[in-house]
């Protein structure tokens, strides 16, 4: 340890080591959580922008720890990507998503799609696509009802093989959504050849609806995405003003707190059953 009184230095290193301690504690807890499957999937509805009916759901992982409470995925997923646990966690997400989707389909809810988030590390595993396909097949869910979300950075930083992988998945009926679009600095020429089905516009663009320049970009992105044959999802729709603009611009699908927060499978089941009765 350094001597005290060296300006802000001591303070800084104290903070740093405290942060490291916290990280290693979380890391240790993460190992335990993985072993004991202490995770849960929540599901957030994605609705048709005209009818507001639920078209699909995004599975979002939740980790509740008795000591720390909810540890947000924004915090532990990046950590799991560094320590390699993302592979095991990701496999669990796939199995659990299939299991839950099967339950819904067996109860008569057959027209809902389910999206899972896949990280770059998972995708870079050469066995990933084949294993995903097998898991889906073995689960007995209706083909084509489970799809994956990949962030823009995952795809643009990826190797050329990723394109082949994505084409293969799509040929097997596993659609691909490009997540967080607009945050990864992908070039337009890149977009031209992208083997994807759905483009999810990042929340930051939705938050800035009202800003003139932002809206020009947003409108252009929607037009461009449609011309390239993609469906467009707007994420983080929170206000009526957002909704009005997005509907006017022809955005296909909407996701955000205005419609629903991520919820447990039980709550989503009630919601879906209510909808089918309407
Ligand atoms: P994401 O994939 O971009 O997921 C959307 C995030 O935005 C979710 O946060 C969701 O709860 C939140 N959100 C949805 N609507 C609104 C809204 O109207 N307003 C605001 N402020 N937020 C909204 P969440 O669940 O905390 O997840 C954060 C990130 O963690 C995800 O961002 C994704 O990158 C990652 N993540 C979550 N689950 C998984 C998973 O199973 N696997 C992997 N690899 N990553 C995951
Ligand atoms: Ca996502
Ligand atoms: Ca996103
Ligand atoms: Ca995000």
Account of the 3D structure:
- By secondary structure, the chain is of the alpha/beta class.
- Helices cover 50% and strands 19% of the residues.
- The chain has twelve helices and nine strands.
- The chain has helices spanning 9-35, 73-83, 86-106, 120-124, 128-139, 152-156, 161-171, 188-192, 203-207, 212-227, 240-248, 265-277, and strands spanning 39-48, 54-65, 69-71, 113-117, 146-151, 176-181, 198-201, 231-235, 253-255.
- An eight-stranded mixed barrel has the order 1-2-4-5-6-7-8-9, surrounded by five helices.
- Helix 8 (188-192) links the parallel strand 6 (176-181) and strand 7.
- The radius of gyration is 20 Å and the shape is globular.
- The termini are far apart.
- Residues 1-13 have low confidence and may be disordered.
- One calcium ion is lined by residues 179-180, 200, 235.
- It comes from Shewanella sediminis (strain HAW-EB3).
- This is Signal transduction protein containing a membrane domain, an EAL and a GGDEF domain.
- Residues 23-276 form the EAL domain.
Can you give me a brief rundown of this structure?
Residues 23-276 form the EAL domain. The protein has 278 residues and is an alpha/beta fold. It is built from 12 helices and 9 strands.
Number of helices: 12
Spatial separation of the terminal alpha carbons: 67 Å
Strand fraction: 15-25%
List SSEs in N-to-C order.
HEEEHHEHHEHHEHEHHEHEH
Q: Identify the bound ligands.
A: ligand C2E, calcium ion
Sheet with the most strands? 8 strands, mixed, barrel
Mean pLDDT: 91
Q: Which sequence of strands runs across the widest sheet?
A: 1-2-4-5-6-7-8-9
The dominant shape is: globular
Based on DSSP secondary structure assignment, what is the total number of beta strands?
Answer: 9
Low-pLDDT windows of residues: 1-13
Rg:
20 Å
Which structural class should the secondary elements be placed in?
A: alpha/beta
Query: Helical residue percent?
Result: 40-55%
Domain EAL: 23-276
Keywords: Membrane, Transmembrane, Transmembrane helix
Protein name: Signal transduction protein containing a membrane domain, an EAL and a GGDEF domain
């Amino acid at each position: 340890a350094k001597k005290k009184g060296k300006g802000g230095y001591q303070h800084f290193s104290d903070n740093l080591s405290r942060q490291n301690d916290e990280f290693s504690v979380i890391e240790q807890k993460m190992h335990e959580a993985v072993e004991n499957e202490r995770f849960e999937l929540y599901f957030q509805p994605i609705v048709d922008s005209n009818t507001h009916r639920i078209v699909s759901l995004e599975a979002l992982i939740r980790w509740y720890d008795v000591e720390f409470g909810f540890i947000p995925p924004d915090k532990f997923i990046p950590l799991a990507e560094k320590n390699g646990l993302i592979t095991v966690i990701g496999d669990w997400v796939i199995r659990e998503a299939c299991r839950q989707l099967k339950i819904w389909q067996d109860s008569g809810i057959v027209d809902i799609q389910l999206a899972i988030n896949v990280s770059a590390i998972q995708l870079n595993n050469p066995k990933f696509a084949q294993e995903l396909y097998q898991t889906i097949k073995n689960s007995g869910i209706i083909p084509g009802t489970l799809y994956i979300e990949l962030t823009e950075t995952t795809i643009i930083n990826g190797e050329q093989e990723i394109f082949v992988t994505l084409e293969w998945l799509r040929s097997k009926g596993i659609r691909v959504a490009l997540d967080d679009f607009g945050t990864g600095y992908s070039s337009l020429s890149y977009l031209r050849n992208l083997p994807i089905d759905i483009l999810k516009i990042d929340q930051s663009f939705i938050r800035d609806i009202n800003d003139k320049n932002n809206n020009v970009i947003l409108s252009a992105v929607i037009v461009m995405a449609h011309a390239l044959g993609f469906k467009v999802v707007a994420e983080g729709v929170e206000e009526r003003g957002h909704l009005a603009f997005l509907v006017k611009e022809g955005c296909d699908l909407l996701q955000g707190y205005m419609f629903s927060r991520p919820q447990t499978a039980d709550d989503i089941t009630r919601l879906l059953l209510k909808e089918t009765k309407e």
